Amino acid sequence: MSSEGKVLVVDDEPNIAEVVRLYLEHSNYEAILLARGQEVLRTIINEKPNLVLLDIMLPDISGYELCEQIRKMEAPFHQTPIIFLTAKGESIDKLRGFNLGVDDYLVKPFDPNELIARIKAVLRRTIQVPMELSQTQNSSRKWLEIGNIVIDLEQYRVTVGGKRVELTPKEIELLYFLTSHPSRVFTREDLLGYVWNFDFTGGTRTVDAHVKNLRKKLGQHDMWCIQTLWGIGYSFEVVQHV
């Protein structure tokens, strides 16, 4: 097994799949290739890939639908990072992908070296620390509690009022970043730089989509909220300290 982990590649174009496989193996990843979507969920359960590289236009199922199915899987499989690798490059396509919980989006034709860099970046952001390690390093854990919300970035776990809220890894990272700087306003460009780590091709609407998802999943609370400053950006506001 590769020392860097497994990547499940779902693409029905043999030439592209083979190029991706070669670059993954050169970068010390194990590549698992599928040309159809029907075996993806079963493969995720059996092989436990670290990341899924997913085409949107598959012969048997839409990549959008498949992404939605993955996000509805039981824990921990529902948090498997997903990168769309597709010829569909319109902004509306990207926004739809991020609304479904995809972690990154790369348009064909693509630079294989950029693909590897994006895979590494996503895995750096989403890798989970084993429980025994996080317990021994409790003093340095990335953990926040504000009112009734608890965010554990090392375990990628968010609870509100003691109940776990199922968020994607990127949604958790965005939430953690905002709550780490209460009352500080960040522009969309700021958040792209701090949370996505580079000039992300999805544009600033990616941030809007993630904030919208966070609000929907977290619900409304009297103690805190994600505030919109129209024409500027977002901030995490503590309404009542408890």
TrEMBL record:
A Pfam family recorded for this sequence: Trans_reg_C
Domain Response regulatory: 6-123
PANTHER family reported in the protein's UniProt record: DNA-BINDING DUAL MASTER TRANSCRIPTIONAL REGULATOR RPAA, REGULATOR OF RPOS
SMART domains: REC, Trans_reg_C
Organism, as annotated: Paenibacillus phytorum
PROSITE patterns: OMPR_PHOB, RESPONSE_REGULATORY
Residue list for modification 4-aspartylphosphate: 55
Name the UniProt record assigns to this protein: Response regulator
Domain OmpR/PhoB-type: 141-238
Keyword Phosphoprotein among record annotations: yes
Positions of the DNA-binding region: 141-238
Keywords noted in UniProt: DNA-binding, Phosphoprotein, Transcription, Transcription regulation, Two-component regulatory system
